[in-house]
Amino acid sequence: MRTRRTGVFAGVLFLAALFATAQAVDTHWREELLQWREQRARQLSAPDGWLSLVGLEWLKPGPNSFGSAADNRLRLQAPVDPHLGVLELRGQQVFLSAPASSLLVDGAPASPGKIETDGSHPTIMRAGTLTLLVIHRGDRYALRIKDSQAETRIHFQGLHWYAPDPHYRILATWVPFHPPQEEAIPTIIGTTLKLPVPGIAEFTLDGQAVQLEPVLEEPEARQLFFILRDTTSRSTTYGAARFLYTDFPDHGLDHPGHLVLDFNRLQNPPCAYTPYATCPLPPARNRLSIALPAGEMRYSH
After folding, report:
1. What is the pLDDT of residues 162-191, one digit of tens each?
2. Does 71 fall in a domain?
3. Residue 165 contacts residue 291 (beta carbons within 8 Å)
4. Does 292 reside within a domain?
5. Are strands 108-109 and 104-105 parallel, antiparallel or unpaired?
6. For residue 163, what are the domain limits?
7. Where residue 120 sits, what CATH number does that domain have?
8. Residue 149 has pLDDT above 50, yes or no
């Protein structure tokens, strides 16, 4: 009898230990998730975050003067010099000329020269409260304008999230493509991005088989980028898409393996906060017929 009681007691202790371990893991996961959500809000509302984006001006071939004066090709609605400089579009290159003394380029007083567009090392121009960046979309170039004193940033009141739910933290199977494929990703401004798709993530949620394809944003990217839409986009989440970034699969991109898809980290694209962003839209495979009531909800301006 004593042996039987001892065995029952040991079993109870084992189950209690498992339960305590599961609770500790769950607590750690929630803490990390909430910290990540707080960090995301700080990044969005930073002086040069997406909430500071106030303009997108497309360049025409040839000279494009910019400044606060009405006679500029690109007029800036901010207290800066009347004529800050000229951006000259020559084919696939952009050059700065006639810079004002108040214009800074990469933190130093501006001088004439080539402007690097958005990518790994873009040229950053600053004037007053403005941050200016030339971006390349398709075969077009534009001046992106951010203002640290933008109303959208100054009056930011936080983001809205679904409550953390471990049901939407999923271990998916990774199926690599050999060789990697290329996907034409549409954007909200009507252009198309051609990005590499290294494989497919497969999983089952609420009895339904799902496949999602990620892209690599840059050749040197160290995360997978999922652009997706689910049925909550009709009501509680942003209608165009949401984004999810994940670590690479456990055996790398080239080998079968597994990866974690934590949909509690689904986030809105920049277009949810400003009409001046150029967001990608989901490829056909990632337009889901299921609901993912997890992650970031619609943003209230």
Report:
1. 999 999 999 999 999 999 899 999 999 998
2. yes
3. no
4. no
5. antiparallel
6. 157-286
7. 2.60.200.20
8. yes
